[in-house]
Amino acid sequence: MLPRVHGPYTTESVDDYLKAILELAGPERERVTSNALAQHLGIRAASVTGMLQKLAAQKPPFVKYEKHHGVRLTAAGKMRALEVLRHHRLLERFLHDFLDYSWDEVHDEAERLEHFISERLEDRIAAKLGDPETDPHGHLIPERSGALPAREEVLLSRWACGVPAEISSVSDRDPAALREMTRLGLKPGVAIMVETGTRNASLRVRIGDRADSVRLSQTLASGISVIAG
C-alpha cells in the first residue's frame, strides 16, 4: 500500500502539481519545465515557479527545482504523486463500471474526489473492481506498492504507415475528443493501422475490421497511444 506523505503544502493544489510532473516527465523521468506545467495546469508560469520553490524548500522536499533547468520529483514527491494517480484511475474505473458514467465524464469527477479518499476506501474500491490494471481510457493503474508498470507506447500521430497497431490508451483531458473517439470506435484494445498521413497533416486510418478508412485530425491522433498490433 502506498504510504501517505504529509507536509505543510500537502493540499489539493500540491497533489495536482505532483501528478502533473509525474505524467509530463514520462517513463524517462525527464525534467519538466515551468512552461509545460503552466500549460498542463492552465495557470500562469509565474504561479508555477512560486509553488515549485515552496515544494523544493519544504521538509522533506517534494521536488528538486533549478531555475531555467526544470523540476523533478523527489522520492517523497513521487510517492505522493503515484498515490494520487492510483486514486484517480481507480475512481475513474469505479465511476465507469459501477455508476454508469461515460468515459468522457469520469475524469472531472475523479479529479474532485482523488484527494480525499482514505486508504481503506481505496482498498475496498480496488477489491470491488478486482484490482484492475487500467482505467477506462487504458492508462495503467499504479500498484499498491507504488510500482507503475512500464509499457512501450507511441502516439498514433507518430506511428509508421502500414504497420498494424493496437490502441493502448487515449487522453482523458478533452471530453469532446473522447465523444468523437466513441463515435469512430477508437477505444483501447481496438486494432488500427495508419494508411496515409504526415506529422503535419491529417491521417487516414483503418479501424478494426471496417472495410472503409476514416480521416483523423492531428489533434485527435495525438491523443491516441498505440502498441504494436
What is the topology?
Blueprint: H1 12-25, H2 34-41, H3 45-57, E1 63-66, E2 70-73, H4 75-98, H5 106-113, H6 119-129, E3 154-155, E4 165-170, H7 175-184, E5 191-196, E6 203-207, E7 214-216, H8 218-221, E8 224-228
Antiparallel strand pairs: 1-2, 3-8, 4-5, 4-8, 5-6, 6-7
Helix pairs in contact: 1-2, 1-4, 2-3, 4-5, 4-6
Report on this structure.
It is globular and about 60 Å long. The strands form 2 sheets. It has a 6-stranded antiparallel beta sheet with strand order 3-8-4-5-6-7. Strands 1-2 form a two-stranded antiparallel sheet. It is an alpha+beta fold and 229 residues long. It has 8 helices and 8 strands; from the N terminus they run H-H-H-E-E-H-H-H-E-E-H-E-E-E-H-E. 40% of the residues lie in helices and 15% in strands. Helix 1 packs across helix 2, helix 2 crosses helix 3 and helix 4 packs across helix 5.
